[in-house]
Design a protein that fits this description.
By secondary structure, the chain is an all-alpha fold. It has one domain. Helix content is about 65%, strand content about 0%. The chain has 6 helices and no strands. Helix 1 runs parallel beside helix 3, helix 2 runs parallel beside helix 4 and helix 5 crosses helix 6. The longest helix is centred in the C-terminal third of the chain and has 13 residues. It is globular, with a radius of gyration of 13 Å. The mean pLDDT is about 95.
Length: about 100
């Protein structure tokens, strides 16, 4: 799957009957790619559409993946200041606690 196709699938993802497992599969592809940072805006967009949700726990895979790869911090701060989300708040707290 091309990068642009995967980004589009992430940006447009909606769980079916509350089931987020297909999103987990998309995240696996993201973090297996050579450049997962390209997908961060799309992942943050999903967080923003689901502001008070953790995707039935699946969003934690995105959090752990971004923490392992890095390079998300400035984008997180910028996006969180515009559209606060549960997962964004958690990620900011985790950054602060790691200091």
């Amino acid at each position: 799957m091309k990068t642009s196709e995967l980004i589009e699938k992430i940006e447009n993802f909606e769980p079916v009957d509350g089931n987020w497992l297909a999103f987990e599969g998309l995240l696996e592809r993201v973090f297996a790619s050579g450049e997962p940072q390209k997908f961060y805006p799309a992942i943050f967009a999903v967080f923003e559409r689901n502001k008070e949700d953790d995707g039935e726990g699946v969003f934690w895979s995105a959090v752990h993946g971004m923490e392992a790869v890095g390079g998300y911090e400035e984008m997180l701060v910028s996006r969180q200041s515009k559209i606060p989300t549960l997962m964004g708040s958690i990620m900011l707290r985790r950054i602060e606690n790691a200091k």
